[in-house]
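Friendly challenge for the regulars: who can give me the structure tokens for this chain first? No prize, just bragging rights.
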Amino acid sequence: MEFPSTLGELRRSGYKVRPVKDEMRLNLIRKLEAKETLLPGIIGYDQTVVPSIVNAILARHDILLLGLRGQAKSRIVRMLPTLLDEHIPFIKGCEINDNPYKPVCKRCTDLVKERGDDVEIDWLHRDRRFGEKLATPDVTIADLIGDIDPIKAASQRLHYSHEGAIHFGIIPRTNRGIFAINELPDLQPRIQVGLFNIMEEKDIQIRGFNIRIPLDLMIVFTANPEDYTNRGNIITPLKDRIDSQILTHYPRTLEDAIKITEQEAWVQRGENEIMIPHYFREIIEQAAFEARKSEYVDQKSGVSARLTISAMESLISNAERRAILVGDRCVVPRICDLAHALPGMTGKVELVFEGEQEGPMKVSKALVGKAVREVFKRYFPDPLERRIKHQGESRQVEDGEYGKIISWFESGNKVEVADEMPIDRYFNELDKVKGLRELTKNHLKLSESNKYQLASAMEFVLDGLHQSSKIAKDEVDRMTSYKDLVGSIFTVKGKGIEEED
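First reply, four minutes later:
Bragging rights claimed.
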């Protein structure tokens, strides 16, 4: 497609220039009528955040996305340019993308007066109509709006009050597009005041000179509510000028959380086949859900979705490392690999005082343990719900389907596994436990042909029983031992007595 190259050709083509908010509104309406996905890759917001964004755009509002870290605020902002026209015309060489029909900068106004319909036109792609600035305490008005350029004024022999002496900031350079400020509360209050005119009158003023340049912009802000008290705040008059405040949130279902991590985590590695049992995906996500309600975690800070992404990548990396070292043909995570996922979690949670006393590693390990217990109960009977048999007048308490397994450990037996064990040795060690293989196969519908998944699931059962306080577990020098709970208690007590003596 050939675009008009001069102002005269543009007029003859019948092209109409629309304000950016009207442009976005019309393109949004077309997408809604065509039943297109508005924000592809944004999961869990279909009934909450997305309708609010649609309403704001239909109302031609500027927007504030307010939410804790890791809630896809920046991603949403960066997807808004898809609602712009693919190309728009502007006067060639203009720093602020001037509307050819109604130029506002001094250069373009003079150019149209001088050359009329022969003024050259260029076309701006939607990707170049988006400007973004991370708010930091050192951001200045000159960065955002602009300033007088003394070198420019001297070289062109211009007075400082002449518009040609202006060096434009990032906001006017995004004219006729979308401008975003991330982490708005970090912007100093005096700089926030400088945005008043842009938000209300849609124009900029430079250094107190009598220069007013109207802008055509949609402005989008992001902010974290924690910042209102800890690092800064959004001044009230500016909040009053932002038309729509939209609250974001974390995934509300485990299924949505799993989809997000599947989409974002890098798990496909090299040539080895990657197999991730679904219960591992649930354990990783459940750990984040547990963190978001833990008394040791600062809930005002939030628990980012990046926690589960990092944890999943760390988990797969340890399974990949094992496959490389021992020559396994499949990469399948094991429960003993979860210890290596902790480094992906510890830096992602802010702890309260009690959590700091416990330590980030201990808190993260406890969260994973709770997650294993919750997920285990979705696939297997709850070990804490004991069945009662009636025999005449007597009553017998049983451990249900886990009786054989628990009895095997009560007989003094134990299992020792490590994350670097080859698959055959790993499977054979777990298969020593009487009844474990049959129980695992029955509830997870696994066949013996896939030894990798079956062995991993068998350890999942043992860890589920440990998290339900049915058997004991020790982790020493990267070796994990499962053994009888009561015997373990007495052994520990015995060692303690000897040491005291």
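DSSP finds 23 helices and 18 strands in the chain. Residues 390-398, 492-501 have pLDDT under 50 and may be disordered. Your move, everyone else.
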